[in-house]
Amino acid sequence: MAQLYWQTIGEGQRDLVLLHGWGLNAEVWRCITERLTPHFRLHLVDLPGYGRSGDFPAQSLAEMANVVLMHAPAKAIWLGWSLGGLVASQIALANPERVDALITVASSPCFAAHSEWPGIKPEVLSGFQHQLSHDFNKTVERFLALQTLGTESAKEDIRMLKGVVLKLPMPTVEVLNAGLKTLEIEDLRNGLDGLKLPFLRLYGYLDGLVPRKVASLLDERWPNSDSYLFPKASHAPFMSHSAEFCEVVKAFIDQIDTSPQRG
């Protein structure tokens, strides 16, 4: 039977689950764990099919969310980066009683671009899917490079991301293709319209995968949520701006701990 990798570390009373993005694994969070463990009980997860959870087959968004939730604390704050943001959002929508707050990082409820919605062009996503079967390593490397483009620490960040990928077994082509398909087809905008939980959305001004215009559109659409734009960050603000990122996350959680829950 497939086993989900789940590590719990930290000294705080609050449970904070961290979900990584496409092609990666929980090791990507090591750049911020030292800053967060004094304040939270962190749960580091390799999503089904990724890293040390590699025995899982390719899964849909709902299937991934269900597997992850089965291993989770009864109540937690969920923080998801990119594809992990979709998984965390799906959990919040399907099981709001298990979620104290939702934090998405460089994520979008709808990653694919539409006529009225900024995002990744469908032909780019389908191109990645096609390329995976022809040149697996180069395709993954290209996608990782897009995540750090434009930042002052781009070379260092891409080196770190590559190290995270190479440190553990790579996901299969089928798992990676399923992840790209999720980014292409899922649209949680309408569902999240009715979300009653504290909700923080974090973005990078230089992000080429989740355009900054998504932030302002959702500010208008979801006035009860909070957002923060890192001026010099791209798709991985927790790597390029670790200290600032952790301060923003901690301030948000401190705020919900001292304020009545918003509805």
What tags apply to this protein structure?
263 residues; alpha/beta; seven-stranded mixed sheet; 11 helices; 7 strands; 43% helix; 15% strand
Alpha-beta content class? alpha/beta
What is the averaged pLDDT score?
Answer: 93
Helix fraction, binned, reads 40-55%
Main sheet: strands, sense, barrel: 7 strands, mixed
What portion of the residues fall into strands of 2 or more residues? Answer: 15-25%
Order of helices and strands: EEHEHEHEHHHHHEHEHH
State the strand order across the main sheet. Answer: 1-3-2-4-5-6-7
Helical run tally: 11
General shape: globular
- Total beta strands: 7
Written description of the protein model:
Helix 2 (61-70) crosses helix 3. The protein contains eleven helices and seven strands. It has helices at 30-36, 61-70, 83-94, 122-132, 136-146, 154-167, 173-185, 189-193, 213-221, 237-240, 242-258; strands at 6-9, 14-19, 40-45, 76-81, 99-105, 199-204, 226-230. With 263 residues, it is an alpha/beta fold. Strands 1-3-2-4-5-6-7 form a seven-stranded mixed β-sheet. Helices cover 43% and strands 15% of the residues. The mean pLDDT is 93.
Q: How is the secondary structure organized here?
A:
Elements: E1 6-9, E2 14-19, H1 30-36, E3 40-45, H2 61-70, E4 76-81, H3 83-94, E5 99-105, H4 122-132, H5 136-146, H6 154-167, H7 173-185, H8 189-193, E6 199-204, H9 213-221, E7 226-230, H10 237-240, H11 242-258
Parallel strand pairs: 2-3, 2-4, 4-5, 5-6, 6-7
Antiparallel strand pairs: 1-3
Helix pairs in contact: 1-11, 2-3, 4-7
Can you describe this structure in just a few lines?
The protein is α/β, with parallel strands linked by helices and 263 residues long. 43% of the residues lie in helices and 15% in strands.
